[in-house]
Structures
1.
Amino acid sequence: MRKRLGLIVAALAVAFVASGCQPSGRYFNEVFSSAVRTADIQYGAAPDENGVTERLLLDLYQPAGDQQARRPAIVWVHGGGFRSGSKANMAADAASFARRGYVTVTINYRLRDDNIGQAIADAQHDAQAAVRWLRRFADQYRVDVNRIAIGGSSAGAITALYVANHSEDPGTSGNPGFRSDVQVALSRSGFGGFYSAGDPPIALFHGTADGTVPYQTAVDTCRNHRAAGNVCQLTTYQGAGHGLYADHRDDIVAKSAAFLYEHLDLGP
């Protein structure tokens, strides 16, 4: 009965967002007045393109004054073509969702210029180490180990989708012995690769005029994901380019909150 009620609430949440109305309460709205940030926590280490060990750092955000025993978590991954950017680029997202009741982290990951395929693999493995870090320190930060999501923009979105797709390839960037899987992935202007049955639900947000990551790659990602029997939600923004978040932030956040609520099973 509890499971059925949760599904009903989730369906109503999606319908409310589609109608332009956003439900209230934890996970939908910023119910906490502020988020507490703990900066520059090392979550792993791995060799860079020159073979030099790089310390991998994250910033942790928690809802101020929250008393809940276990909280869902989100790993946020920045964009920058796998060549630039930093965890600071996702600070607004992390703080916003922490004020909604999540534990969130933004991560630095290895950047490189020489090999895009290797860069994607490095980013995937580093992000998976961050997922494992959340599980390793779940008791300390009151994280629900079975409700972890990942999201990002551009290169970060590609990384998020690869993490969702490849829990069987965890890499060696840190925190061995803990699970690397996520339960939901969010992509803004990104794409994924091949999918298999049982991969987690994904939500894509993409503009039809994206000249950096073509819109068709998002269409193909969803088609491949659904063909494997999985859940994919694609939100299309007609005429929007690669930087669609600047013009469509409110809609993306509302739909992301509803998708997370449903597929992390956060209902009563």
2.
Amino acid sequence: MMAFTDPLEFTREVYSINDFTVGLIAPHHLEGQYYAIKGIRPRFIHYSTKTDESLNITKQTEPKKIRFFMDLFTAQSPEVHASAVDAVVPVMKEWIDFGRYYGSGVEFMSLFGRSNTEPAYGAYIGAQQKVDNILAPSLLLSQAGAIVSDWNGNSIEDSKLKDRVNIVIAANSILHENLILHLKGKI
């Protein structure tokens, strides 16, 4: 995973999410790479065929028909971890299924459908996630129309690279509202 900012701005000591304009994720399977530039819809380019596909996020709004990823294991203390688990249990009961995020960026890309296929996932929830770990995926997903916020529904764009955030990425506003309803103010 990589994210880029304007090279002329590369003199500052502290950067926030909002400073980055390009995101790139190259999955381990070496088939191709995902990329996005602010203001342009994310794409997937195949290494061998050089074909360039548009990426889509789900239009599904019913939680009982879609899955989400979660990463609650980066919490800095047992108390925060327990609180995060408690907050996510209602989501686990309402949505059809969930997956565990392992931090490689490939899992995030499961929120995308390629070649007009429907993605299997509609959201990501992370507790105390390091901003630099979610920078490139959140840039790609937000350029596709996903909603990215903290657990209270607030923007995380001004978060600094070394910050930790409780993050929600949802494919659309209805799914986002559903998640915020469960997570708001929990940790």
